[in-house]
Amino acid sequence: MASETEHRRPAGVKGILPAGRESVAVLVAIAVGWVALGHYLSLFLWHALPGALLGSLTLPGYGMICQVLTTAVGLGVSWALLRGPREALALSLPRGWDGAITVLGAPLIFVAASWLAIKIAEPYLLEELATQGAGASRRNAGAFGRAVTQAPLLVTLLWGVVLAAITEELMFRGAVFGAAQAVTRRWERASGPIAVVVAAAAFGALHADMKGSVGIVRVISTTCLGLGCGTARWLGGSVLVSMLLHFTYNTISLGIGRGWFRSDSDPIVSVVPNPLLAIAAVGAAAAVSIAVIRARRASLLLRP
């Protein structure tokens, strides 16, 4: 039987290094390299691939190539070096109703993140409107904004929802979260929250790729999403839970861009369509109800 000390150690390195400080260093190196690859691969391929090939690719198509390559390399290196890659990346099935609670709570997280991002960016947005006109935000969103709103729906769903959630959650709530938690393991209860913040900060920083107020909104909202996904990963113990949250969040974001929640009534909460606000309220109430029922059942099972 393994000792208690062995159980507390992070996943070791397969056939190369024993579990301990060396394995933590390797996990940190994998996380840093994975994020760097996610950031620089698109730039590298843009200069490395033939111009004729690049000219034939749409932005979603090019983005999907980068997403698949980044994920394949990150997973491949993790499986090659880590003794327990599944544990290090939290690749386990969600427990019980964790997935349902996460999906039901996602609209409220989107509403809160959007409201906060707009409030922070509001002074810059007003300045842009006064100096550059109403089209400034659309120009700053650039090709990305046009692709989200105008590309074929199935292509956008695959690129901006499914692959984005898988790629970014494995990178940030898998590798980065696991590395941060392993480094701060000695602090026990604080280790999880620290990992949530570190992964969210890295996630937000990697999305600082637009100018002006729309760039501010993007960084703030993705950081908030990162905090939500990190909390789901921490409490649920599985990166698949954070994937579900990310998937639902991006679907809502796509719906906003495509007018799925359009309403003629004035929004009760700034920039948030009232139909979405209603969905968020109902979803949050359902999530809380499920959580309370689970807690009561658990307490009954513990009674003598």
Work out the strand percent: under 5%
Principal-axes shape call? globular
Per DSSP E runs of 2 or more residues, the count of β-strands stands at 0
Could you report the average pLDDT, rounded to the nearest whole number? Answer: 87
Determine the N-to-C terminus distance: 30 Å
The H/E string reads HHHHHHHHHHHH
The helix content, as a percent range, equals over 70%
How does the SSE layout of this entry go?
Elements: H1 4-8, H2 21-48, H3 51-56, H4 59-81, H5 85-88, H6 98-132, H7 136-150, H8 153-183, H9 191-206, H10 212-236, H11 239-258, H12 274-302
Helix pairs in contact: 2-4, 2-8, 4-8, 6-10, 6-11, 6-12, 7-10, 8-9, 8-10, 8-11, 9-10, 10-11
Tell me what you see in this structure.
The chain has 304 residues and is mainly alpha-helical. It has helices spanning 4-8, 21-48, 51-56, 59-81, 85-88, 98-132, 136-150, 153-183, 191-206, 212-236, 239-258, 274-302. The radius of gyration is 21 Å and the shape is globular. 38% of the residues are buried.
Give a brief outline of the structure.
The chain is built from twelve helices and no strands. The protein is mainly alpha-helical and 304 residues long.
